Protein: Large ribosomal subunit protein bL25
Organism: Roseateles asaccharophilus
Amino acid sequence: MKFVAFERKLQGTGASRRLRVAGKVPGIVYGAGEPALIEIDHNALYHALKKEAFHSSLLDMELNGSVTQVLLRDFQMHPYKPQVQHIDFQRVDGTTKITKKVPLHFIGEENSVAVKTDKCTVNHVVTELEITCLAQQLPEFIEIDLSGLTKGHSLHVNDIKIPAGIRVVTHGKPNPVIATPVEPKVEEIVVAAAPAADDKKGKKGKK
């Protein structure tokens, strides 16, 4: 994805406030050289932030007529208004190694034995994975094929295909669960027992 940024010459709380009133978002680009102060059109940025790829892939930033590859690193929203307050990007090149969370795209679960035959539902235990790789190898998403899922057997990190050069960060967990089939609940029908014959006689005798 590509976006246009403009050089920001003024900084400070007052200058940032005036930028926001003018429909701009103050930001910074750091890494691989001197930090650069930037400003971006708010509406364009607000709509870009709604797209998954803007958060998880390399971005082409046009600034002063040249294009630089960057990654979105952080952004701040207004506490209650739909307004972006500030945004941070990181410059990257072919040697930049990064650690970043990428979304998972699940496919094929409707064709799995667990769903098709055993009527299970699939619980997506995690929807993103943290990975370490070179910036140029960063995938926009990781595809998870659930077509081989069977009842009673979960899909783990070690079961999925990860592109070469990418390592999943598990934070000490040896083999985390990605997705697991959940068996359908069987509702128990409780039938009230009819009163015994002796109980009926006892009730008649009391009248």
